[in-house]
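Final report, section 2: Outcomes. Of the targets proposed, Glycerol-3-phosphate dehydrogenase [NAD(P)+] is the one most frequently requested by collaborating groups, and we therefore present its record in full.
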Amino acid sequence: MSAPLMIYGAGAFGTALAITYANAGHPVTLWAREGAEAMQKARENIRRLPGAPFPAGLTVTDDPATDAEIALLALPTQSLGEFLSTHRPGAPNLVSCAKGIDRATGLFPTALIAQAAPGTTPAQLTGPSFAVDIARGLPTALTLACADDALGEALQHALSTPALRLYRTTDVTGAELGGALKNVIAIAAGAVIGAGLGDSARAALIARGFAEMARVARAAGAREETLTGLSGLGDLILTCGSEKSRNFRFGVALAHGETLAEDVTVEGLHTARQIASDPALDTPIADAVAAMADGRLDLATVLDTLLSRPLKPE
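The predicted structure is given below as tokens.
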């Protein structure tokens, strides 16, 4: 039997991971902030991931205590700090599944975990994936980033399944940046499509967005090649081209002058605001996303600003 796992966060992604690991033979406990009893009885997360039945090895609870060796924290970045301030996960190996930058502290998920659990070396699981695909057992490849390569290799083997293939890196900064920044570009791509500017404009936006991601990565000391992998380019391609992406849908809504439901987390918006607030970074797309979302610029003005930038070599 595979190692027991604890997954904190019964959103769509946490639920999907719980299902795929239980199907792979892991005894899995899924912690839910609310609705645990209803999910355990229905054997399905009807609210967040309908149509994906729970395997026999999956238990849902509202008790955060665990004796599992590995805990995956599949909570939104903006909720992770609050959770960690009241619940110190007891597992010795902690893996973040969050993408983004905490708006209260400016920290990435693994830094939040390390701050709350001194002495641990948290890992980051990230890359191109939609919850519905993982829950269905469709082939998916992700990046597992851990500063301790030996620990990363052990987690890589423990958390890979026949359908979920993990590649590892020690560049945690690059992996977390890729997962955060691609959401910003996805918002912009959604706005391009929502405004009816076409697929050619979206392709140009993605290419220039990737160049912007690389500039931010260099400034943060990350390895540029990390951004060309699953956690950067792979995730960028996925989220900029699908309505399944919340960030892409937010961009479409932004172009239409609308908003998403209040309970839908749009991590790219918080990241855009963080990046745009740093005057040392050359990030015209992140700046434009933040300005549009905050009502400081409309789409027409943003387009005029971006298209009138000086011509330069690529």
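The beta strands are 5-8, 28-31, 58-61, 70-73, 93-96, 123-126, 140-145, 164-169.
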